Amino acid sequence: MAVPKRKHSNSRSGKRRSHDRVKKRQIGYCPQCSNAVPTHTICPKCGYYQGRTVTPQADE
């Protein structure tokens, strides 16, 4: 098995890990009820997704 001859510097390790961070979720707005919703998800308030009501919500 291959073994590294030298230790990677902290700078080099940091450069490699710079893309490992957790990114923020993109927020869009529901076109029907204007509620803030993460993109590509069903609106939890009205059940709307991609031009139609996917899950009917109970009236409260």
UniProtKB/TrEMBL annotation:
Annotated spans, Disordered: 1-25
Among SUPFAM superfamilies, the record links this protein to: Zn-binding ribosomal proteins (SSF57829)
Q: Which family does it belong to?
A: Belongs to the bacterial ribosomal protein bL32 family.
Q: Which UniProt keywords apply?
A: Ribonucleoprotein, Ribosomal protein
Signal peptide start and end residues: none
HAMAP family given in the database record: Ribosomal_bL32 (MF_00340)
> Which protein is depicted?
Large ribosomal subunit protein bL32
Task: Decide whether keyword Ribonucleoprotein is in the record.
Answer: yes
Q: Name one GO biological process term.
A: translation
An annotated GO cellular component of this protein is: large ribosomal subunit
**InterPro entries in alphabetical order:** Ribosomal_bL32, Ribosomal_bL32_bact, Ribosomal_zn-bd
Query: A single GO molecular function, which one?
Result: structural constituent of ribosome
- One Pfam match, given by its short name, reads Ribosomal_L32p
